[in-house]
Amino acid sequence: MELKTSEIIQEATQLFQRYGIKSISMEELARQMGISKKTLYQHFTDKTELVDKAVAQMVEKNTCNFKNLYNEGLNALEEMFRVYNIANEMIKEHNPGFEFDLKRFYPSIYKKVRDLHRSSMYQSTLSNLEKGKSDGFYRMNFDSQVIAKLHVLRIENLMHTDIIPSEEIHSDHFFKEVFKYHLYGVISKKGHEYINQHYPEFTSNE
Questions:
Q1: What domains are there in the chain, each with its CATH number?
Q2: What angle do the packed helices 107-135 and 96-105 form, to 10 degrees?
Q3: In this model, does residue 204 exceed pLDDT 70?
């Protein structure tokens, strides 16, 4: 049965994430999918187009996950903890080799994705901070725009640093500490009480 374009993109995405982009050719992609190279080129003019479509699908999937979350009517702290769980899984699946290949060999696609991630993370963080203030779970005496920008900068730098070993960054403990650093920098007394009641494993005196 011939694969649909969407199915080819999905399988290519998995292969790129597993092996990197540069190391796998169109011929090898076709072989792994059980289709001919000719069939692959009937769907995509070249590898660049396939990479572009694959990355776009990854971004769309992540965006949908977060959009669905923000449409559930959660309070600010519930949102933040759900984002923590989703982001923690995303970091575990993050392949530095995939990103390295994208940045080096497909810089325009890399820049487009990076800018989308930055904008999305900033807007969602800013929205959460404002909601938290409105809920009374966050302090009122900080600049939400500045904190949202710092949060984006912190997360982005963590994913591209050579100071901290990759294995440590991808560990549950490390990301939990990064999350708590942001969390306890913004919550109010009411927020502390809510966390102690609903998320005792994140209490600051553990």
A1: 1-55 (1.10.10.60), 75-201 (1.10.357)
A2: 120
A3: no
